[in-house]
Amino acid sequence: MDNKKLNVKDLVTIGVFGVIYFVLMFGIGMMGMIPILFLIYPAVLGIIAGTVVMLFMTKVQKPWALFIFGMISPLVMFAAGHTYVVLVLSLIVMIIAELIRKIGNYNSFKYNMISYTIFSTWICSSMMQMLLAKEVYIEYCRMMGDDYVVALEKLITYPHMVLVALGAIVGGFIGAYIGKALLKKHFSKAGIV
């Protein structure tokens, strides 16, 4: 059972992949500078980051690895001034994603794919701040200008957030399959079928 516990090498791998994911997330997040594109950001991130996260899942097939990996970006965002909404919603999403992965014993593509589709929805917490912590989030967004804030207020509604979350799920699903196609050799080496 000791081989199922995270060791220093696993934590280093989590950290390296966490940094890669954060850089991807931040880079793709630049599309959010145009308010309407902010709504498709979770779907695009899910597609593009799928390869990185799926490779991570082949490298570290142990309990709580995905949870720790997944909480790095929300913690950095919180430290940078985002609200508690990002932490709380991400925590819920990461626990669910981790439990799904556990059902597949960490080496089932089917369960890793489902886990990643759920994982992909965490970034929606960034937009949910507009609905659940509006005043604080508006102040945070003011650096982008008043027009930007007004546009976000109009765009980020509960009905739109349902579509954004569905987009993130679809993006995660597509990203998982792209990751599997690109990493076929790694998947077979890791025993993931």
Helix percent reads over 70%
Question: What is the terminal-to-terminal distance?
Answer: 22 Å
Beta-strand level of the residues, as a percent range? under 5%
Identify the overall geometry. elongated
Structure annotation, total helices = 11
**Count of DSSP E strands?**
0
| Mean pLDDT figure | 93
Uncertain segments are: none
The SS-based structural class is mainly alpha
Element pattern in H and E:
HHHHHHHHHHH
Question: What's the helix and strand layout?
Answer:
Elements: H1 8-29, H2 35-38, H3 41-59, H4 65-79, H5 84-103, H6 109-119, H7 124-132, H8 134-141, H9 146-155, H10 158-182, H11 184-190
Helix pairs in contact: 1-3, 1-4, 3-6, 3-10, 4-5, 5-6, 5-7, 6-10, 7-8, 7-10
Provide a short characterization of the protein structure:
The protein is an all-alpha fold.
How does this structure look, described?
- The chain has 193 residues and is mainly alpha-helical.
- Helix content is 78%, strand content 0%.
- The protein is built from 11 helices and no strands.
- α1 runs antiparallel to α3 (41-59) and α3 (41-59) packs parallel to α10.
- The radius of gyration is 17 Å and the shape is elongated.
- The relative contact order is 0.17.
- The model has no long low-confidence stretch (mean pLDDT 93).
